[in-house]
Design brief:
alpha+beta, Endonuclease III, domain 1, 2 domains, 4-stranded mixed sheet, 3-stranded antiparallel sheet, 7 helices, about 35% helix, rod-shaped
Length: about 170
């Protein structure tokens, strides 16, 4: 960061290393007191000192925000949080591999995984729950059952008295 801060080229660079240095330095930006790197997505992320890595990985993996996700998702959270360092993926892999909670839980097998069923979108009055209630004694006008229908979305209720609890009543 000395070049970005003071404009001085390091003494130990020449030839090919000098070309590579000037090509790489274009991806960095110095804003006192931090160094930022432009990623392949065009976003600038703060370059992190080694002393900060453990805490950042904790917040992006082990905290309640982190969620104990695997290497790539945790690394993506680090990048989304605006941080970068050269060994990001290697360090993230090592951190996840030594996470006590993750080691105890292990991988979720397909048998224990939540089913990935699509959520059905239904409109009002599309889906009804229908059932008979009864028999009631004494009968009222010859009716001893009540046919109850409830709309799943609006919870609208319809009820009619019926003499029997069979399909003929439902079809009426």
């Amino acid at each position: 960061h000395k070049w970005l801060q003071e404009g001085e080229v390091p003494d130990d660079i020449n030839g090919y290393k000098k070309k590579k240095f000037f090509r790489d330095v274009n991806h960095y930006y110095w804003d006192e007191p931090y160094l930022f790197k432009r990623g392949s997505d065009g976003l600038f992320r703060r370059c992190v000192a080694e002393a900060e890595v453990e805490e950042i990985l904790y917040h992006c993996h082990g905290s309640s925000y982190g969620g104990h996700f695997a290497t790539f998702k945790t690394a993506r959270k680090v990048l989304q949080a605006g941080y970068w360092w050269p060994s990001l993926f290697k360090d993230t892999h090592a951190y996840v591999a030594k996470c006590d909670a993750c080691q105890r839980a292990g991988n979720i097998s397909a048998r224990n995984e939540m089913p990935q069923n699509p959520i059905l979108e239904v409109e009002i009055f599309d889906v009804w729950g229908i059932d008979f209630v009864g028999p009631f004694n004494p009968p009222s006008h010859g009716n001893i059952y009540i046919l109850v229908a409830v709309d799943y979305v609006s919870k609208w209720v319809e009820a009619i008295a019926a003499p029997t609890n069979d399909a003929k009543v439902v079809l009426k």
